[in-house]
User: Fold these one by one.
Assistant:
Number 1:
Amino acid sequence: MNDEFTKSILKSMEYERQRQAPPEEFPKFPTIPAGRYTDDKFFKLENEYLWAKSWLYVCHLDEIPETGSYLLWEKTGTPIILLRDENRKVKAYYNSCRHRGGPLINEQKGKLEGRLICKYHGWCYALNGELSLVRDKRDFIALNQKDLSLKSIKCERLGNWVFINEDPDAASLIDYLQPLPQHLVQFQPENLRLVDSRTYQVDCNVKVLLDAFFEVYHLTVVHKDTVDRFLDHRGTVIKLWENGHSVMITPNRNPEWTDPGTIGMPVIESVTQIPAEHNMSFNMFPNLVTPMAGTGMPFLTFWPKTKSSMEIDCHWFAPEGSEEGFSELWETRINNFERILEEDLQFASQLQNSVESPAFDGLNLNYQERRIYHWHEELDRRIGPDRIAEEMRVEPLLKNYLSE
Ligand code: FES
Ligand SMILES: [Fe+2]
């Protein structure tokens, strides 16, 4: 990110603070139908066309450090193996044997001794997925081992962060994420280490919680004793990008202010003024939210379980050296973060009950909540509007408001 970007964001913050209304001609949003949060059919469409066809963050290289290291990943309900092959390249396979579907892996993580062995009848696969051994081969007629490799899944990296996409026709990760990667370079993603990972269970539709991370309109109420004391939501600058991605930059009330939870932590020197002095949070569509900071950042990933329950993962990354031993500094920082997260989670099940009640028609969004509308527009493009009942669709309105 260059000086020009910094200057333009600072100027936009001033504009946002002073405006008396949304920009002229900005559209009024139609109500986002409630059924998108409650309907069984819609939930199925999301599973089929969104979650099974998107680039999704799965792990950091530190979690599978060497040849044979693996983890079992089941966040979308489909069991997937992530492992390092003989060349230490990361590979993703379905955890499903080509004989009768037995599992190759049944532990959450571990290290393989050179091959995967099916837990059912013992077929063996090399780390590159090839079927290398069939027991009692004499009993199979014309078995073509070459055609029975493990089914693989697209798996690519951004720095040390690993993503998968179950759609074999998906564009490459880097193309898909544009223009986001160029904003992340300053954080030196290839030097970031995994510090901590935790998961929180929440009783609401995944979008109920995601929506809260796309706007700062709730700060003054939900976070009045925490985040609202240091962030000025009225100066928030938003950029909407292709493919549903976006960024939200919320100014610190005082740019000199430093998060007390980060004092004493190593700082990534190349981080520029905007993320160093303000709050910059990206959304990599669909479910990755990243409030970035020079001392490291969490990756928040949001996963649907049922249409009214979900889980949120929080993975913390920091520059080399920060992760050694889990220091008191990190404990304090994560505790502070959890206090804010609890504020966001406190009404989740009540919100869900309300959304499911006959009183609720849908979401009536304002200008500063436009990232939510942008997200829903993209969801319909992914599913294909023709597959969605007419009364459940979201009208595309934001095409002319996308940034480069
Ligand atoms: S199911 Fe894997 S060897 Fe039979
Ligand atoms: Fe919040």
Number 2:
Amino acid sequence: MNYKFNENHRWPEERIRQELQRLDKFTGLNGNALPIKFTYSSCTLGSFNSRDKKQWFEFSRAYMEDPGTPDQVSVDTIRHEYAHYMDWTVYGNLGHGPTWKKCCDEINTLSVRLYNPAIAQHYRKLHERSEANTRLCAGYTEGQAVIHEKYGTGVIRSVRDVKEDRMLEVVFENGQTKTLSARWVHDHCRT
Ligand SMILES: [Zn+2]
């Protein structure tokens, strides 16, 4: 996508949001709805943050408002942080792992193409799936009873989260301990 870079190279909130909006249009996500906090950090250009169920972006005015910062650096910073938002939203991951790199690739690939509704739909679906998974797994916690067709009644002793699922260690009344996936229990057991 071609940018009409303005002359002073400054990126106030309004301009950052224009870029977020553009990225949202490609992915079908809603990154522009997040708050933006500004810092004056000289070592961190930007960050995506997720704490206590709240998400927000941070950008450093020391760079974004500095006429000496090339526009490409500002755009790259916004995209880098947007990829973190996308990775967290679609895959539930933070950090610079394989899914984050995949998000970066998608953003850079998408950004040179025209808006594609099918791709936006793809990300919306992935996001919905990951949210449904999170809701499903949250329903299985320690101490909860599980009724298994073959082993009878059991109690969840511990849980361990894995990608898109939760492993439940269940102690059954017959003394047996089984590790079952929350998705499997959801489909096959009563609670
Ligand atoms: Zn990063």
